[in-house]
Amino acid sequence: MPPLARIVKGSAYTVTDMTQTAASQPLLEVTQLTKRYQGVTAVDGLSFALQAGECLGVLGPNGAGKTTTLRMCLGHTTADEGEVHYRLHAPDDMLRMPTDASRIKASLGVVSQFDALDPDFSCEENIVVFGRYFGLRGADLQRRARDLLEFAVLSGRAHARPSELSGGMKRRLSLARALVNDPKLLILDEPTTGLDPQARHLMWERLQQLMQQGKSILLTTHFMDEAERLCHRLIIVDHGQKIAEGTPRALIEQHIEPEVVELFGQGASAHAHGPCRALAQRVETSGETVFMYTHQAAPLLQALQQRAPGVRTLHRPANLEDLFLKLTGRQIREGA
Fold first, then answer.
1. Does residue 218 sit in the same domain as residue 263?
2. Do residues 35 and 77 make contact, with C-beta atoms less than 8 angstroms apart?
3. Inter-residue contact 283 to 290 (CB < 8 Å)
4. What is the pLDDT along the chain (336 residues), one digit of tens a residue?
5. Residue 227 lies in a domain
6. DSSP letters spanning 256-275
7. Domain-terminating residue out of 197, 224, 252
8. Does the predicted TM-score (pTM) go above 0.90?
């Protein structure tokens, strides 16, 4: 039996797969959440809900209020206005953060933006000591730690300290530690930031396996491919407010023309704003690249080939990054 199956199906773990029959009541419900710091509104009346078995992604530029929102959901920051409710045990058992923080946190798994591993403990000890905070003891806890290390592909590093691990290993260890209490809901703040492509893909694989077993995930990320790959639904926030919500594909279809032609090279901007401009519904420029958005790329590509033979082009379907940049802008913001 593979290690993940042992973790979630063993006698110590009980998981109900709700991906096909999500409860009518959301697992997490955030209503009009607001937070201000010294007169600056970091989160401004934000509302959303997460259903059981779902991965909900929160996207936004740096400073949009994503991490502050998660901190309020976890009770680490007190909201000035609004409420955070959880239904982690039964649809009619509604818990409020921070009033019921202890009961809520017993069913949560958290991977923060920055690793909070204990540098003095080995990988196995990091999991075991963390498990004791949830009242776990003895052989059951040791078995969980071994299974989680195997799940995280760290069995061979059980006695290594975090300082001996790569960035990808540390993130996988953080995820393994967050699973020690068999949480119903995982809250992940940029879990793959700083990882190389191989490590990121392995983390995605593990998160997808957890969702297949009925885990729910609230995720913030700056990687558009990560959001499109993992998330059932997205909310996009900017300046603390929700500006869009829906499935990745539905949001792209709603806000973006279906085809994109990118232009590179000398004279790209001149040609994009010349006679070919009429063949695109929208044109944006970022650095030396021109993005021409259109419903039908064939006439545009033909015209560019005839009028701008020296300009390189890339034809592709619209993606989540196009959506994100349209809604939040292409300009680098101060402090980003």
1. no
2. yes
3. yes
4. 344 544 543 333 333 333 444 447 899 999 999 999 998 999 999 999 999 999 999 999 999 999 999 999 999 999 999 999 999 988 889 999 999 999 999 999 999 988 899 999 999 999 999 999 999 999 999 999 999 999 999 999 999 999 999 999 999 999 999 999 999 999 999 999 889 999 999 999 999 999 999 999 999 999 999 999 999 999 999 999 999 999 999 999 999 999 999 999 888 988 888 889 999 999 999 888 999 999 999 999 999 999 888 899 999 999 999 999 999 986 655 543
5. yes
6. S-SEEEEEESTTHHHHHTTG
7. 252
8. no
